Amino acid sequence: MVLFTKLLLAHLIGDFLLQPNRWVIHKEANKEKSKYLYAHVLLHFVLIMLLVWDLSYWKIALIIMVSHYLIDLLKLYITPKFRLKSIPFFVDQVLHIAVLYCCVYYGNLMEHTVALFQNLDWALVTAIVFVSSPAAIIMGKLLEAMSDKIELDHKSLPNAGKYIGIIERLFVLMFIIMGRWEAIGLLIGAKSVFRFNDLKESNNRKLTEYILIGTLLSFGLAVITGIIYVSV
């Protein structure tokens, strides 16, 4: 686990802290002809050796460097084909981390992976999944009759309310698991402050009531989920 943590740290430093934006732009424009692509993967090799501080791991560092080159090169070619650039970015990061995982546990990769899944807190996983999209869909169904009577604000970001609700429910669930109930009150207060000016300017009683019901319902679902998880 210590080795994986060091490799992950080297990856984070190399991919985010020590990769200037001009390197990224140059790589996107020149692909395999970019000198910064080779500087980038070489930097990863150096970082791994520095953090591990053991020459016997040079083969692992070399494998990671070569795989990093191939994955980054693939991303450079497929990224223009995607409308959402975040998709190849996250796929790229998952592949890099998967390589690190395989390099660390190559001796018993299957056994370790099976044990990892067996030891997962499946009740927590279920709770997290529930307070995300399923809870959002349930809220949509419960508020469906009311939402038809509310004038839509076309200046809002697409699905912004949905994602705000998911994030706030995840925070509430985390606070309950940590036993920090007072933090939930602070979260409600912070959301009320941000919403106050919008509701004041709109002067729309129906919208105010709709947002209030939606907020209480969202927090309520998260609280119930948290209580059930803690009680199990």
TrEMBL record:
The chain crosses the membrane at residues 36-53, 59-78, 90-110, 122-143, 170-190, 210-230. The keyword Flavoprotein does not apply. Keywords: Membrane, Transmembrane, Transmembrane helix. Signal peptide: none annotated. This is DUF3307 domain-containing protein. It comes from Zobellia amurskyensis. The lineage of its organism: Bacteria, Pseudomonadati, Bacteroidota, Flavobacteriia, Flavobacteriales.
